[in-house]
């Protein structure tokens, strides 16, 4: 990542930061040089060499983004005898702490501490105690190094927060897709099963009376039209805000049963709901009845199906859909995902779902949903 960043061209912000760091290093060197003019260095040639090294060190700072570690090591080594390169060395130490791992940064920092000890030994100040000079140098290096670590840590936090935000966004997208998939399965499965029943009847009864054919064709047309309408509503979930689309409730169950009766199913409805249940419980109860009727239409359409919905505030909302043994059972096949998704939907609503064969070789689906008082 760092090599990719250093390889690309500097942005405006990079130029501003680099110029500021270069300027500070130059000012630090000029300030130190002005003090040395008042207090000449012995031998005199050392001051001239020091100025050349300091100038080269400041100019090398323009390479700090490409080779931060190598540049820092070189400048730390030069600072063992050169005081005018100290500003550039502090800038390089700061850069390593920002852009490199803590392990590399601490290694370079420890090397700078050794260099500070070497400077005190090689170039002692007559008027300043060596311990004070060493403490001053280490304090400046620690400040530059610590500042770089703080920025490095902040950048890691920003990167981590960005990654977590992406993960949350992906998770939200997956949950939205799962919700849309469940809606499409529940809604379209019910409608398409109606189409399948009546299309199959027309296929196996080509000699049926004209009025029966007309009735079956009308149901097919109405079911196909309603399936398209339902599909538009489900797809609208991807565009509309949450809660904006109309959702079915317990009050819509009688119409759902009436559709199945018009499709030729024998359905008995026992509706005993006192009051209006919460939206989540009512919508989930509707989906339970819808999925159970769809399965009964597929596997036991020649039997009587009993739908019982009841409950009140405080006791909860109960749903039970039961059918008898089919007179013409279909061959066994692998179970689908309808009941699994239905159980997940009920659990998300805070309830529980049970399903399985009855003593009379039929099938029963029962759910309980919470309805606070």
UniProtKB/TrEMBL annotation:
Gene3D superfamilies: 1.20.5.1930, Histidine kinase-like ATPase, C-terminal domain. SUPFAM superfamilies: ATPase domain of HSP90 chaperone/DNA topoisomerase II/histidine kinase. Its EC number is 2.7.13.3. The chain crosses the membrane at residues 71-97, 104-122, 128-150. CDD domains: HATPase_UhpB-NarQ-NarX-like. Residues 177-241 form the Signal transduction histidine kinase subgroup 3 dimerisation and phosphoacceptor domain. Residues 11-131 form the DUF7134 domain. One of its GO terms (cellular component) is membrane. GO terms for molecular function: ATP binding; phosphorelay sensor kinase activity; protein dimerization activity. Keywords: ATP-binding, Kinase, Membrane, Nucleotide-binding, Phosphoprotein, Transferase, Transmembrane, Transmembrane helix, Two-component regulatory system. It catalyses: ATP + protein L-histidine = ADP + protein N-phospho-L-histidine. The keyword Phosphoprotein applies. InterPro entries: DUF7134, HATPase_C_sf, Sensor_HK_TwoCompSys, Sig_transdc_His_kin_sub3_dim/P. It holds the Pfam family DUF7134. This is histidine kinase.
């Amino acid at each position: 990542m760092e090599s990719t960043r250093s390889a690309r061209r500097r942005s405006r912000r990079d130029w501003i930061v680099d110029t500021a760091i270069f300027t500070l290093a130059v000012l630090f060197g000029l300030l130190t040089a002005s003090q040395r003019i008042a207090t000449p260095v012995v031998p005199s040639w050392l001051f001239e060499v020091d100025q050349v090294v300091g100038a080269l060190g400041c100019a090398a700072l323009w390479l700090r983004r490409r080779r931060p570690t190598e540049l820092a090591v070189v400048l730390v080594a030069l600072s063992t005898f050169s005081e005018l390169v100290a500003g550039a060395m502090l800038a390089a130490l700061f850069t390593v702490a920002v852009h490199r791992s803590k392990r590399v940064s601490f290694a370079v920092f420890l090397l700078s501490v050794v260099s500070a000890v070497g400077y005190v030994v090689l170039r002692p100040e007559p008027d300043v105690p060596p311990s004070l000079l060493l403490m001053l140098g280490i304090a400046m290096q620690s400040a530059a190094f610590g500042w770089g670590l703080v920025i490095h840590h902040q950048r890691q936090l920003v990167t981590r927060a960005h990654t977590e935000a992406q993960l949350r966004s992906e998770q939200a997208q997956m949950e939205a897709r799962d919700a849309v998939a469940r809606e499409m399965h529940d809604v379209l499965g019910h409608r398409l099963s109606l189409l399948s029943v009546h299309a199959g009847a027309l296929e196996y009864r080509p000699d049926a009376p004209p009025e029966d054919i007309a009735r079956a064709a009308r149901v097919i047309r109405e079911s196909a039209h309603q399936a398209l309408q339902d599909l538009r509503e489900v797809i609208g979930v991807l565009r509309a805000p949450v809660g904006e689309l109309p959702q079915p409730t317990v009050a819509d169950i009688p119409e759902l049963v009436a559709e199945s009766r018009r499709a030729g199913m024998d359905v008995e409805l026992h509706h005993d709901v006192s009051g209006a249940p919460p939206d989540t419980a009512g919508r989930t109860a509707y989906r339970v009845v819808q999925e159970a009727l769809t399965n009964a239409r597929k596997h036991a359409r020649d039997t009587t199906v009993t739908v019982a919905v009841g409950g009140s505030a405080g006791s909860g909302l109960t749903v039970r859909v039961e059918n008898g043994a089919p007179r013409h059972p279909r061959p066994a096949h692998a179970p689908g995902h309808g009941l699994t998704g239905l159980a997940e939907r009920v659990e998300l609503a805070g309830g529980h779902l049970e399903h399985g064969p009855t003593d009379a070789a039929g099938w029963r689906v029962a759910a309980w949903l919470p309805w606070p008082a």
